[in-house]
Amino acid sequence: MTPIALRPVSETGTGPRHAAPTFLLIGPYDPKGGEYTFLAPPLGVWRLAGVLRRHGFAATVFDPNCTDGAPEAALAELLRVDPWTVIGVSTTGMTLAHDLALAHLARRLCPGACIVAGGMEATFNVERVLDLGPFDCVVLGEGEQPLIELGQRLQSGSDLAGIAGTARRLEDGRIDRCPGPAMTGEQLRDAIFETPYEDMPYGTYWARLEQAYGVGGLPVKAEREARLAEIRSVRLITLNYCPMGCTFCSSTNFLHAAQGGQTARIARLDEEGCLSMLKRIVRAHPRVRTVIFQDDIFAFTKDPRILALCQAILDAKAAGDLPAALQFISTNRIDAMTVERLHAMHAAGFRVLGFGIESFSPNVLREFNKAAIVPFISPMLEAALTLGITPFLDMILTSPRCDLADLAENIRGALRWIEAGCEVGVYPYVVPFSGAAMASDPALVPQTVYTRHEVAGTAIAWDQPSKILPAAADVRDAILTIERRVDHVLDRLETQCGHLPSRVRSLIWVTCAIPVLRERGMEMPDAGRAERALMQQLPARRYAKVRALLNPPMVRRAS
Ligand code: B12
Ligand code: SF4
C-alpha cells in the first residue's frame, strides 16, 4: 500500500470567522452502473444536502453515475467553478476504488478544501479509508449531525477536533475517533422530510433506463407497461436500521459502529409520515409508477404500522390524494408476514415483495442467524403468489460452512420457486462486506479470497476481501465450476443481447448448476425443466442464443 502524506489537522478549519461554507457531496461511483440493479439517485447524499440547506449552508450533489460524458471531467468542471469549503465523498465497499479516485481528483483541484469521507465503508473501515484517501476526516454513521457541526465550526473558524460522529488521523499517526449517537426518531423524521425529492433527477434516470432496456422497442404493450412500472420508481427510506443481526449483513451493524459499539435505537416514520412523503414524491415526480420502500426491513413481527399504513394508502387513493394505480415494492423479513398483512399490502398496491430468503437449507440459515424464517418460507411464498404478488427472493447459494447437499437444496428450491412465479436474485457466496460479523470472523480468513484494487490516477493499490468461499473442498470446487460456466454464458450473452433481467440470470445459474451437482452425486431435477423455464422468460431469438451457449459442448458434456 502506498503511504499517503498526512495533513495536520490544524491546517483546516482554524482561524477567523469565514463566509458560510459551501458543501459539494459526491455519491458512490459505480462505473458499471446498472450492471446488477437499477440505479437511482444516491439517497444518502441527497438527504444530507437537504438537511444542510435547511441549516443555511449551500449544498450541491454530484452524482457520478448520471453525468453527460466522463464523470471525472464533469467533476473537474464543478471543482473549478467553486473552491468548495467541504467536499464530501460517499463510500461503499463495492465502489471504494472509484470513490477514492474522485476524492484524489478533488484534492488535486481544490487543495484547500476540507475533504470528508462518509457512508458504509468509511464508517466500518476508518483506518483504511484514511490511509488510502486524501481525507481530513471521516464521518461515522449518519452524516447529518456531524456535517452541520462541521459547517458551523468552519464558519466560526473553530477547531475541528472532537466533533461527535467523526474520526481523524492525528499528527502522531494515531486515529482520534469520536463516536456519535444515531439520530433520534424526531431527527430522522426531519431528515427524511428535508430530502429534496423535487431536485432529484429521477426523470433523467428513467430516460436512461428506458433507453438501456429498449422499452420503446418492446412489441407487447403489457410487457412495455410492466417494464415502465419497474423503471419509473422512486426510492423512499423510512427506517434507520434493521436490528436482526444476520451474520453476512453489514448494514445491521452500521449505527452500532458509529456509536462506538453501543446498540442503536430503532427509529422510523409512522404511517402519517409515510403518507405525507408519498404525496410529496407524487407531486415532485408525477410520472412515478412505483415507490420502493427501501427500508432494510419494512415490517417487524410486532408492528402496528403495516396494517395502518396500507389502510391509509387505500384511503388516500380513494380520496384522489394518491394515484389509484400507484404501486409499491418493499424488502421484508418473511417471518414478519401473515396472510392478513399480505392481503392488506396487496390491496394497497404492493406488487413485488422482496424477501431475503438467502437459503432453503435450515443449516445454512442457522449459520446466517436467520433460522427463524424457516417455517414461514413455503406458506408465505404460496400465500403471496396466490394473491398475485410477485415475491423476489435474494439467495446466497453457499455459506462458509455449508455442504454439497445444502447447495443442491438451494438450486432445487430456486427452480421450484421460479417455476411457481417468484423472481430470484442469485449470489454464489458470501461477499465479506466490512462491518458484517462474517467479515471479521478470524476462523473464516483462510477461506477468504482477496481482490487487488487500484485507484485510477494514483499509485495506490490494496487487497480487499471479495468472497468467502465454502470451507469444504467439494462445495468450493462445485460453486467455482458453476460460476465459471455462468460467467462464460453471461459474458457472451450480454455482449450480444444487452442487459438480462435477474430472473433470466438466476435461471442460467440453475441450468449451469444442475449438471455440475449431478456429476457430484446429488439428486437434481432434469436440466430440461430449467431450460423450459428459461424459454418462457425469453423471446425466441434470445432463447436460441442462450440455448446454443448452454448446450454442447458445455452442459451436455458435463451431464
Ligand atoms: C437503496 C440501496 C441500493 C439501491 C440504490 C442505491 C442508491 N443509488 O441510492 C440499489 C438497488 C441501486 C443498490 C445497489 C447496490 N447495493 Co445497495 N443498498 C441500498 C440500501 C438498501 C439503502 C441505501 C440507502 O439509500 N440508505 C439510506 C441513506 C439515507 O443512507 P446512506 O446511503 O447510508 O447515507 C447515510 C450515511 O451512510 C451517511 N453518508 C453516506 N454518504 C455520505 C457521504 C458523506 C460525505 C458523509 C459525511 C456521510 C455520508 O450519511 C447518510 C445520511 O445519514 C443499502 C442498505 C442500507 N441500509 O444502507 C444497501 C447497500 C448500501 N447496498 C449494498 C450493496 C452491496 C449494493 C450492490 C453492490 C448490490 C449488488 N451486488 O448489486 C449494488 C451496488 C450499486 C452501486 N453502484 O453502489 C451494501 C453495501 C455494503 C457495503 N458495506 O459497502 C448495502 C449496505 C446493503 C448490504 N448490507 O449489503 N443499493
Ligand atoms: S434481515 Fe436483512 S437487513 Fe436485517 S440483518 Fe438480516 S440481512 Fe440485514
Q: How many strand units?
A: 15
Give every kind of bound small molecule, once each: cobalamin, iron/sulfur cluster
What's the main sheet like? 7 strands, mixed
Tally of distinct domains: 3
Number of helices: 21
Main β-sheet, spatial strand arrangement: 2-1-3-4-5-6-7
Spell out the key features of this protein:
43% helix, globular, Rossmann fold, six-stranded parallel beta sheet, alpha/beta, 3 domains, seven-stranded mixed beta sheet, binds iron/sulfur cluster, binds cobalamin, single chain, disordered N terminus, 559 residues
Briefly say what this structure is.
The protein has 559 residues and is an alpha/beta fold. Helix content is 43%, strand content 14%. The radius of gyration is 24 Å and the shape is globular.
Notes on the structure:
- The chain has helices at 43-54, 71-81, 96-109, 120-124, 126-132, 144-156, 185-194, 202-212, 221-231, 254-258, 271-284, 305-318, 339-348, 362-367, 377-387, 404-420, 473-497, 502-519, 527-537, 540-550, 554-558; strands at residues 22-26, 58-62, 86-90, 114-118, 137-139, 166-169, 175-178, 233-236, 290-293, 327-332, 350-358, 390-396, 423-427, 448-454, 461-468.
- With 559 residues, the chain is an alpha/beta fold.
- The protein folds into three domains: 9-178, Rossmann fold, CATH 3.40.50; 184-397 and 429-440, no CATH class; 472-559, no CATH class.
- Strands 2-1-3-4-5-6-7 form a seven-stranded mixed β-sheet, with helices on both faces. The protein has a six-stranded parallel β-sheet with strand order 8-9-10-11-12-13.
- Strand 3, helix 3 and strand 4 (114-118) form a beta-alpha-beta unit.
- The chain starts with 21 loop residues before the first strand and ends with a helix.
- Mean pLDDT is 91; it is low at 1-14 and 552-559.
- Iron/sulfur cluster binds at residues 242, 244-246, 249, 251-252, 296-297, 333, 356.
